[in-house]
Amino acid sequence: MPWSNQPGGPWSSGPRGPWGSGPQQQGPRPPDLEEFLRRSQDKLRNFLPGNLGGRGIALIALILVGLWAASGFFRVEPDELGVVLRFGKFVRVVQPGLNYHWPYPIETALTPPALRVLKTDVGMQPGGNGDTDVPEESLMLTGDENIVDINFSVLWRVKPNGVGDYLFSIQNPESTVKAVAESAMREVIGHNNIQPIITTDRPAIQTAVQELMQKILDSYNAGIEVQQVNMTKADYPAQVIDAFRDVQAARSDLERLQNEAQTYANRVVPEAKGRAAKIVQDADAYRAQVVANAKGQSSRFLAVYDQYKKAPDVIRQRIYLDTMEQILADVDKTFIDTGAKAPGVVPYLPLNELGRSKGAPPAAGSSGGGK
Length: 371
Hints:
alpha+beta, 4-stranded antiparallel β-sheet, 11 strands, rod-shaped
């Protein structure tokens, strides 16, 4: 077999010899570390002319110290507060703006959103297509053993002087606020009936939940201030809402009928009382009138009697004439005196005819005809 001119002789099957030595790979060689260090020293010498003596080392150290000192500057955003820790211990709070602390590892700074009003939703999950109910959070048991579906939001912020407690007393502030809010709402709902919860007692429930949440968070030293609790929904569960609405409609009809009956009673009773009072007043007036007439007649009788005692004949004749005048006032007749000394026909003046109008026809028998 002819010899091959390839490196490695006739046993060569590639770039290596028959015993695994021979020529090495023809690809790129790895960088030489010593060469890299030598080149770096050359560049540093070009930057700092002359040999690196004590002055060069001091200059490099000074630059490094300056960069380390400058790393202590930090910025606090307008809705944040800066909390400075010295070897992990809370030392002070700084206001928004550019501030400084000792560089790491002496001091570090945290910037929690202490001036921002945060919102926590319970019973619903905000999303792009609207809020999604979370039944595990929203369904609650009322004091009258009914189930109510409640969604509400809590607005809260860090107390102005409680940033340290906010950072170091609780591990997850948002989860803590949500858990406390749900617990407080369930406790307040458990002491109320379902009908007032849905209709009239929402403001009172919101206030009670806010006060209870603040009390619990203060006991945790959480450094959190609850600003407002807002109930966005309080309704019957979706599975029974139609039946509850029918019950509500029946109660509304009952209240309406009661109001109408009360309105009718308020109108009829005063009218009846008014008519009764009028009858009583008329009776009192009639009694007063009859008593007054009786007293007047008795007084007149006594006055006539006093005169009668003085002149009986004259008063007797006067009484007779007055009585006959009253009896025969409306009688149109002619009287004849049949006495022995009587002149016969008694002349009289037709006073009733004189009082009539001139155009009225005369009454029959008024010309003197008699019976």
